[in-house]
Amino acid sequence: DENYQVGPSRLVAEIQSIDAFKDEVGQFSRARYFELIRRQGMSESMFEQQLARDVASRFVQAGISQSDFATDSETQQFLKLKNQQRDIGYLTISQKAYLKKARASKKQIEEYYNTHKNEFMTPEKISLEYVELDLQKLAQGYEISDEALKQHYEANRQAYVSQPEQRKASHILIKVDDKTDEKTALKTIKDIRKQLKKGKSFSELAKKHSQDPGSAKQGGDLGFFGIGVMDKAFEKAAFSLKKGKVSEPVRSAFGYHLIKLKDIKQASVRTFKLVKEEIRKDLQIQQAEQTFYDLSEKLNNITYEQPGSLQPVQDELGLKIKKTGLFSRSGGKGIAAKQKIITAAFSDGVMNLGRNSDLIELSDTHLLVVRKFEHQQAAQKPLAKVRKQINQRLRKQVAADRLNEELQKAHQALLKGQSPRKLAKTIKGAKWKRVGLIERTADAKSKKKNKLSPHIRNKAFGMPNPQGKKPVWSTLSLSNGDAAVVGLYKVKMPGKQKSANQDKQQLAQNSGSVLFSRLLEQQRLEADIDIKLPQAEE
Predict the structure, then answer these.
(1) How confident is the prediction for the chain on average, in pLDDT?
(2) Which of 38, 97, 319, 400 is the most exposed place for a label (fewest CB within 10 A)?
(3) What pLDDT does residue 538 have?
(4) CB-hemisphere CA count at 13 Å for 490?
């Protein structure tokens, strides 16, 4: 809404920086650029409009997130918190010690089964008959002679250019702008050309007179470039020059140029041997396309007019009826893994009414029609098959409950001042470790075998500061199923911190990111948004 605009030169630079558009030697390839955006079903203008919008969006984000700053006092506070140390110890209780002796009775297993029957069901399943029409497979049946392949290659050599022609040039630019009018610029460039004719060095004249700051210091050298990179008038002149020659004055959008062609890299064309099979596939598909579209229309008509079987399709079109294995709503193997197939299989028409499906497009060139072959309703699994699974669940629950009881007892004892070392000896599976001072961030270079758990470290730095000499105690569950009680003895604050510019920058960046996130939240709250969900099948 604020009319952010992306200039053409910035947009060109963005496009040329995208790795997907670069060739084998890392240079921007215009041919590859066109090929890839067309694969996405986009025109050049569509892609560039979208990219311009993305770049403009980045401008907006940068303008907000990079506008925040950090004061010296904020940086000091940040560094003190960052470099704060905490003196801790922790008591862990192992789950294994309780899992070994945890038992579930026959009655408990039966009660759990009866109250959680919906968790022990075999899913509803279906298997399908189907016919498919695949252009790629259809094309394989067409024979293309070597002579036809060679003729196509010779007639379309330009399509097999792997590296378009590139030219290396130097230039001298005299700008036409508010300071220099057209007439003055043209006179200046002609005077420079006269000096060249008298034997003056192009490189030295470029260093002295060229108003292109990017190339003047290099004697006007622009390096190698291909078609579609430079201004059209500049490009036309550069690609019409012979090696070593200097152009007449050339008027571009920037001003007047003198262009010297220094070198030519000829276009590199892939050999017939390399592209022979690629051409064969292309010509096979071209020949098969009309047959494919004719068959697809007939397939659609036959399966719609005779919805009770796929046999007429096999008889009239020669498309073989295939079958899938049984699969659930989460999918199966092969085509049964495709969401479009799953949706069609469990639709009312196919599953309940036994009809052929509508024509399913897995892609523009891969079509299917499916129908139900076998259907299995969801069923209750017998207790005998799930007894072991239930037993494991109950044992874990019993062990977890017992572990939690011991954890709470240990916590209360520590709060009352009991020695953690002595307490650990009285609890099954318990260990006490007095760590000492730790930092907020783990030392990546530490070679200690028993590194501190990040869960315990995070817990320690989230606990309130101890008041007086009594430690603060807090419990937590660990990711491996064990439990712990963490003790915080004291907090050691650093003195005045020596701050660097990068500390201020980090703090400002973090703050700027938060600022932008809050702006987005505000925009969402103020925006008028309608969310339209698909209607459920009745």
Answers:
(1) 90
(2) 38
(3) 40
(4) 6
